Amino acid sequence: MGIQTPNGFNLDNSGKRIVVDPVTRIEGHMRVEVNVDKDNVIRNAVSTGTMWRGIEVILKGRDPRDAWAFTERICGVCTGTHALTSVRAVENALDIKIPENANTIRNIMQLTLQVHDHVVHFYHLHALDWVDVVSALSADPKATSALAQSISSWPLSSPGYFKDLQTRLKKFVESGQLGPFKNGYWGHPAYKLPPEANLMAVAHYLEALDFQKDMVKIHTIYGGKNPHPNWLVGGVPCSINVDGVGAVGAINMERLNLVSSIIDRMVEFTEQVYLPDLQAIASFYKDWLYGGGLSSKSVMSYGDIPEHANDYTAASLKMPRGVILNGNLAEVLPIDLADPNQVQEFVTHSWYKYPDETKGLHPWDGVTEPNYVLGPKAKGTKTNIEALDEEAKYSWIKSPRWKGNAVEVGPLARYIIGYAQKKPEFKEPVDKLLTDLGVPVTALFSTLGRTAARALECQWAARQLRYFQDKLMASIKAGDTATANVDKWKPETWPKEVKGVGFTEAPRGALGHWIKIKDGKIDNYQAVVPTTWNGSPRDPKGGIGAFEASLLDTPMADPNQPLEIIRTLHSFDPCLACSTH
Amino acid sequence: MSADLETFYEVIRRQGITRRSFTKFCSLTAASLGLGAGAATEMAQALETKPRVPVIWMHGLECTCCSESFIRSAHPLVKDVILSMISLDYDDTIMAAAGHQAEAILQETREKYKGKYILAVEGNPPLNEGGMFCIDGGRPFVEKLKEMAEDAFAVIAWGACASWGCVQAAKPNPTQATPIDKVIKNKPIIKVPGCPPIAEVMTGVVTYVTTFGKLPELDRQGRPKMFYSQRIHDKCYRRPHFDAGQFVEEWDDEGAKKGHCLYKMGCKGPTTYNACSTVRWNGGVSFPIQSGHGCIGCSEEGFWDKGSFYDRLTGINVFGIEANADKVGATVAGVVAAGVAAHAAVTAVKRIVKKPENVG
Amino acid sequence: MTQIAQVQGVLDASGERARSLQTIYVYEAPVRLWHWVNALAITALCVTGYFIGSPLPSLPGEASQHFLMGYIRFTHFAAGQTLIVFFLLRLYWAFVGNKFSRQLSYLPVWNKTWLWGIFYEFKWYMFLVKDPKKYIGHNPLAHVAMFSFMLFLLFMMASGMALYSEGLGIDSWQHRLFGFMFTLFPNSQDLHTWHHLGMWAIVVFVIVHVYAAVREDILSRQSMISSMVSGERLFRDDLPD
Ligand code: HEM
Ligand code: HEM
Ligand code: NFV
Ligand code: SF4
Ligand code: SF4
Ligand code: F3S
Ligand SMILES: [Mg+2]
Questions:
Q1: Is the CB of B223 inside 8 Å of chain C's CB atoms?
Q2: Which positions fall inside the NADH:ubiquinone oxidoreductase-like 20kDa subunit domain (chain B) (predicted)?
Q3: Residue B10: what pLDDT?
């Protein structure tokens, strides 16, 4: 039977049910169920977060200065973004002002994460949805070289280079031990790249794998390690000392040079490898424009990368901020994270308990109390689920809504908002890409659009890295080396009861942490995370989230091989540990 | 393992690596593991005669940063580990297959490589709610974990999660997240703790097992001695400042800029066994202390529940009030001293009021 | 009054009786020597231990000029080893010394007179009875305190040696002997905490102990401090109980 959701989608669960569990090449545990009609077109989609750890519960009663470390462990893939959001929330609650350098270094950390996460996502989590590894075996290395050189000046592009790689790949495949490529969907009709493009992509899969480990050294320098660098309420833990006694053990010239050289390589890699690859792949898939889902209707971005320390207003934020509802690109609505009526979380379809589940709760008043129950129409047992009942509770993810609306978050959302705000940094690269590919602007609202926005953003972030590293150098040159403010370090200096909110734009989208502090301890802590928004189950009114919306109306070549499903899901870069926390 | 499978050496040769660089690789690896010259030959021999060891990498409740750390390995490069040293047949984070195509690999491995594959576990199983705080293929993760452990040759517990429980097992541990050695009882388990562990430590442990075909020597807590036998503090380059009595007293103060010891900032280096101050992180670039923050003890059991990361002493809960050993101790000593004083006063008063008759 | 309350004279486990101004040789020289070395070592351990936990303000200049923490810790370890060596000697003496040398190694819980004595001495300290009883060795309450102190001391020595073995390395004999503490406390941070708390327990004991020794010296019917110096216990009256 067909139903119409309040946010404008048609659902029909009468056809054959297909289950994909585990959804792989994502972070964490996820399940998806879809119904396909007789033509194998997806008519209903049910996405489920299948893990929960209770980090919000665990945070209660702890020292707010420690919260960054706990929340950082929400996710090791978007490592650091939760920590940054957390220290911002605590600083907001306690009205702590951080030094300018600390803001700059935090931006560098956050932008490094953006570049790293986007590159790893594109090559190691998403590429195999577009790239057929086995087809690469039949590529002509010379033609591959010609292709590579026609799109980029990247030096690793000789026929010999590709031939060598192909030989190694051949032997690997012939060994019979396919490792992570085992049981892939090789030869599936939804793969459209010619063998040469496949071979080039495989080469870059390996190059990206080598390079990503160097990118994160920026985190190591300023934060001591990666994954999970260290942070500090009131600033950053590293001290700057370029020419004094003991400089050798602080942020000194050698450290700054190392950061700088890595940034150069990041700019190079995004411009000469990532973007050309994206464009090359996109040119073969521009007819496959499914998966837009919510993106053409409602998108949201909190904004991030403050130019000025302690100024988190839209004017200071270099990433766009605002909400677009119902496809009205003419109006970007302002966001107030402290407003009890804007961000709210619902649990009608989530495995949690609220006193009144018809209502949403603003995160300051948020409640996280697990309640695992299956609906009457579920198939199987409580510990052996065959099919879920989406009319009841069906996910460990809560349903966040902005003024009651489901919204999509992430790079595509940020680019749509930046585009709507006519910010040249965001609009121009989009227009150029669209022109190059010869597709209309509506092509943006698709799986491919999401993947493209991420690539553009990666390049943007790499350039911003250059900007902020230069800014740091200028500041040091001007004699400012402060990195931490300790005025309110001691809990004795804190008010008895306060609350605060911190936000960032994580690689996957808008991230907020809300904290209440009482008597120096955490009284309540709530995180509303990008994948919570995108992966959310239905709300009380039946509005569906971005994952579910994006799968609708996609035709499957072979319902037994869920390539189209995972391709679209991957375009969001789902992070399930994040989503449920 | 069936005879038609290629050996590590064959694979590596097929990939265009020369005999010479293969030997060099063996001696470098042996050296980085702190093993003698003979070990390199032994390793080379092992690699020449064995097919790549299948590895099944499962994920429970976790944040995936152990995987993220693993792919940061510089020596060996992780692409070489995956393409040439092991056969990573199942890892939900990076594998091409999904759904039942992925699940099928688990069954196939159990049958084809019974007793021969390594089970690597990242994260841990929750036991509450019938295990359904972590659902995998519609079933509790813990069940799948036990099934796969059944036929494994050995088990590697990655990170603080699999080894100790980590953040989700911090109080009040709402899901009853449980370290894997509490549910896998019949297999040897190598714990490689850290949140996450250092990349080269992870690949070092894997290559040790695959090349020597045996488990590394473990310490009392089940950790490989080669990486976990000394504390951060024992090898910390700030140690001279500790011995001298020169500390960072406040964030970003003079001491911080000069690289003084972080003990007073709560550094847990003195109680943390890990390789950070020697191997260091991300290709040896730095480690937490070098970048100005104290060690938070991330490779130690239950490090989340020892009070604030910025306190030198463990927090103790006395009757629901949080305090540290000095506060508790000084309070008790103060009360006792006051009691003694009061007792002395009463004694004196009594002596004055009534002269005891029978004291000589 | 109970049956036991009517028991005359001394109330220690052996039920001996002493006359006025009689002196009995109680604490043999090794015991006295141990006592005062112990007192000194523990004082040093408490002071240095405290500063290991909460170090003094930082020193200026280069690290190579100073070794303050090093000296503090060295003093702690030296005092700790001294404590242990003398403890072992004292242990030996408990076998070969007089019966009073064995008193703090056991509690005669099976002895009703002794149990009653704990109660009685408690009342004496609570000002509920006029006079204490006379004892050649420790009074039963002090006996309990001494015994518990020895348990604490054992814990301090075992935990201290375990912590010390961390610096010596896990293949040291110290770690082989005392590493079991890390089975009890797998995260050595906990062992630090308990070792640190142990210090406060010992501080509490010392406060009470020194006060009691001085007070008993003045108020009780027998000598105290001088006994720990000369070894001889002097009884000051000849009353029956
Ligand atoms: C760190 C300090 C001290 C410690 C750990 C300590 C410990 C002990 C112990 C274990 C005993 C029992 C000896 C035995 O039965 O073999 C004892 C007895 C005694 N201590 Fe101390 N002591 C300390 C300081 C002092 C001081 C400062 C005084 C004197 C002012 C003192 C006076 C005595 C006396 C008088 C006895 C004998 C009690 C009796 O006869 O029942 N102690 N002490
Ligand atoms: C009455 C006996 C003792 C007292 C009161 C005492 C007190 C202390 C205290 C307060 C600490 C600081 C703990 C912390 O905050 O981390 C400490 C540390 C230590 N103690 Fe003791 N201790 C005693 C006996 C011993 C003994 C017998 C040894 C064995 C050699 C010992 C070895 C150590 C070691 C190795 C440390 C750690 C030093 C460091 O971390 O740098 N202690 N002690
Ligand atoms: N969703 C999510 Fe994250 C991100 N990006 C965080 O906030 O990945 Ni784990
Ligand atoms: S041990 Fe730490 S880093 Fe590894 S998965 Fe667990 S939380 Fe993440
Ligand atoms: S910084 Fe930490 S590990 Fe290093 S010497 Fe100081 S206390 Fe030890
Ligand atoms: S916090 Fe962890 S990373 Fe190393 S320095 Fe400490 S063990
Ligand atoms: Mg939440």
A1: no
A2: 63-208
A3: 66
Residue B228 has a pLDDT of: 97
Contact between chains at C192 and B241 (C-beta distance less than 8 A):
no
Contact by Cβ (8 Å): A110, A478: no
Rounded CA-CA distance B186/B184 in Å is: 6
- Give the pTM: 0.93
Residues with CB under 6 A from ligand 1: C 31, 35, 38-39, 42-43, 103-104, 138, 142, 146, 149, 206, 209-210, 213-214, 224-225, 227-228
Sign of the CA dihedral B155, B161, B164, B168?
negative
Quote the ligand 7 centre to B238 CA distance (angstroms).
39
CB nearest to A167's CB, from B16, B259, B290 = B16
- Per the DSSP assignment, residues forming a β-bridge with A521 are A518
Q: What is the ipTM of this complex?
A: 0.94
Q: Is the pLDDT of residue C19 over 90?
A: no
Decide: C37 and C78 in contact? Cβ < 8 Å: no
Summarize pLDDT for A491-519 with one digit per residue, the tens.
999 999 999 999 999 999 999 999 999 99
Which chain B residues are closer than 8 Å to A58 by Cβ?
167-168, 170-174, 304
Q: Are the CB atoms for A59 and B128 separated by under 8 Å?
A: no
Other CB atoms closer than 10 Å to residue A495's CB: what's the count? Answer: 12
B181 shares contact with chain C (CB less than 8 Å): no
Q: Which of A74, A182, A236 sits opposite B89 (nearest CB)?
A: A182
- Which residue of C38, C156, C181 sits with most ligand 2 atoms within 8 Å of its CB, as the best mutation to test the pocket? C156
Q: Averaged over A163-191, what is the pLDDT?
A: 94
More confident residue, B346 or A405: A405
B250 interfaces chain C, CB cutoff of 8 Å = no
Question: What is the distance between the alpha carbons of residues C178 and B338, in angstroms, rounded to a whole number?
Answer: 37
d(CA A87, CA A199): 44
DSSP string, C126-189: TT-SS-----SS--HHHHHHHHHHHHHHHHHHHHHHHHHHHHH-TTSHHHHHHTTHHHHSSSHH
Per-domain residue ranges of chain C: 2-234
SS3 call for A299: strand
- Residues in CB range of A51: below 8 A, 6 or more apart: A28, A29, A396, A576, A577, A580, B61, B133, B134, B135
B273 token code pair:
């066994």
**What local confidence, expressed as pLDDT, does residue C18 receive?**
58
- Per DSSP, B301 falls in state T
Mean pLDDT, chain B, rounded, equals: 89
Rg over alpha carbons for chain B, rounded to the nearest Å, is 27
B37: pLDDT strictly greater than 80: no
Confidence class for position A558, pLDDT limits 50, 70, 90: very high
Neighbouring-strand partners of residue A41: A555
Secondary structure of residue A429 in the 3-state scheme: helix
Residues of B within 8 A of A385 (CB-CB) are: 135, 138-139
B171 contacts in chain A (CB < 8 Å): 58
Domains and CATH numbers, chain B: 8-228 (3.40.50.700), 230-360 (4.10.480.10)
CA A193-A194-A199 angle, to 5 degrees, is: 90
Supply the angle between the helices A447-477 and A563-571 in degrees, to the nearest 10: 30
pLDDT the model gives residue B44: 64
Distance CA A22, CA B94 (A): 12
C203/B329 touch (CB, cutoff 8 Å), yes or no: yes
One CATH from 3.40.630.30, 3.30.1310.10, 3.30.429.10, 1.20.950.20 for C2-234: 1.20.950.20
Min Cα–Cα distance to chain A from B226, Å:
21
Beta strands in B4-104 (DSSP E): 53-59, 86-91
Cis peptide leading into A320, omega within 30 of 0?
A: no
